[in-house]
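seq:
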Amino acid sequence: MIGLSKRLVTCLLWAVLGLLVLASTPNILRSAHSKPQTTPTAALPVARFPPPSRPVPLPTLSPVATTGITSTAVLSLDVVPEPVKPVVFPRGAVNIALLGVDTRPSSGGANTDAILIASLNPDPPIITLLAIPRDVLVYIPGQRMAKVNTAFARGWWTFRQTLRYNFGLRVDYYVKANFKGLVRVVDLLDGIEVVSPCPVNHVFPADPYYMPDPENPLVVREAYTNTFTGEVWQAGQLVPTLTIDLPRPGVYRLNGLQTLAYIRARKDIPNGDLDRGRRMQYVLQAIVLRARARGALTLAQLPSLIQQLSADVETNLELDQLLALAQFVAAPTPPTVRVRYFEPVGLTGINLVEVGSALVPNRANIHPYLQRVFAVPRNQQALAGVPMEVRNGTGDAGFGRAAIVRLRELGFDVTDAGDAERVYPHTIVVDRTTTSKGSALHLLKQVGVKEENIKLDPAPEGPRYQIILGQDFEPCYWRSAARQISRDQAAPTPAPTSTLTPP
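struct:
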């Protein structure tokens, strides 16, 4: 992603501000400590965690189902990996972990199923958001290999050291929200409109916190009370279910439970855990837009919202720190917001008996990639996206909005959008660049644009590209990748050419 539009930047700024304000009333929110802290600063000391002096005994497990690792291979968990080189952050940067916690009433678990690292850089004012998949396999310092979503349940100090050891990230503070709070927020707003570039079909228990019986998942094993409605499910009855069905890319109105299911769904969804990070971003944007439309994010109406969410939010930020952060986010010249994902590191899916489904990162790529992610260019122009004008020729307004989301993910700055004069079966791209240097046409192959549908019309001014969305446009990244693989497999293998030896 190269840049974000002003509209998306504004949306994300309100999201960060909303999180900060939700945590800015100590007599309502549960504080994780009572010891006062100073104003946020990059000088916050973080203890160095060198490799242990002696090996930590861990089991060696054979994978029972793998992707990218042969079934006869053994993934060694008894060797402690080397720590990742620390990421150097700009001077004055403050890093906050925004955590969505899966706290089930029946189990008391506290796994962080959503991990978002927000790095706030004061000069130039930039907020970088990094989504870390919950299933990434990491070394828990002093303990064992496990998925990163289990680290926070072992304590804030352990969580900080885990991110420091495995990603080289310095994390200063956290804001933790229970998923139950997400349901409440969406229902308080009378639902949200989510722009979803990919289809989702998911059948889930009417209470997403319900844990089905592994041997008979369709039948209630023992009496259970629905966490959200108070309804009692009797032993022996069929488990009440709800369905979220988003058959094609577009805009969908979701209630609280549907929103939670949309975020958490991963079964039968390609890249299920990685796709969660994207869906969390879409929901966050939808909540903020809906809250702003209803006036729920005004200072006058926030106390009522805070009161209703107080049991579901926790932070170790103090009031003076929150005020400083709120002033930073709400400054007259708002910060630029950049959203990044962890996939470029390189991840291999694997299923281990003691760990479950996990993602094994290419640790050699972690530091170089994250150093680029959190680097801040002094030139603001370096943050700008590729200017593009969009005309929707699909005949479906919701599909057009989903297409724009995907184009922005690819790094295009949609400067103007509107309807085409008719419906187009194929997507047309007008290339107005005057030089091939820095061309972004290769990015459009990821949405199904064919070379024969690219027209040259050089123009020294205005957007570099115009795209007329046709019915063959593919906004869903994983479907586009599957189509490309299918085309590559179907392509004939070129015959070898003879090599002439010069005289």
